[in-house]
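Pilot study result, target chain (246 residues):
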Amino acid sequence: MAFDYVLKFPCDVRKAIPEQKLVALAGYRSLAQFAFDQARQADPSLSPEAILAKYQVEVSQRRPDGVVNQVPMTIAQLVEMARPLVQYQAVCKNCRANISDRPFGCIAKINYPILRESEQWLLSRLPADGAHPGLALLFEFLSECGVDGRNVDALRPRLFESNAPLVRRWQTASGEKQVSSSQVIHMLAFSGEIQPMHAQFFTKMLGLTSVLSDPHPPSPNIEQFKTLMCAIIMGGRLEAPIATEP
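Predicted structure:
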């Protein structure tokens, strides 16, 4: 399972493939690569041909009536389903919306379970000084918009490593303030489609531009959150919305 999101920047690929189909095909491609890498790691002696033919994964498929079924498929079947994308992958190389540095990199995800270290990393990025103007904006935004993190906490412990959110506290002129990791995740990932103006606001409020020059984090899960931040930055710059599907 994963939290999926798409930076919907107009491009030649989107002119050729409808958005919904593009997202589905990119999902098959990504799942095939992930499953292949996992199989190779589990048994390095296997040939690529054996991995493609032998290993199966569960794929979510929505029926016309809206019911979602889990269908077993081999990695080879997934690769074949994603084949229509092959002719377009070179288009993505220099695209400004390619936040993942790979073909169709405007489509990305954060894998569940969300690790505790990722929640720690998110909170560590907030300013240390309780008088920082960005924090004042954050406190006000969370309060006025009702970003309490409850919809994130409802997923614990099933989709999170920690049963409870982490909390960071500051002393301010008006007393002690606190922000939970659930609130940050709620704001960035569980508030519906992120419009360009909201992306610009989040970038300024949280000082996200620094992630563009940060070294790659040691954890793949943290790296995925960093990529989401890059998507938010670029969504604001490119005037492109970010569709989210937790």
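One observation from the pilot: Residues 13-92 form one domain. A full batch analysis is planned for the follow-on phase.
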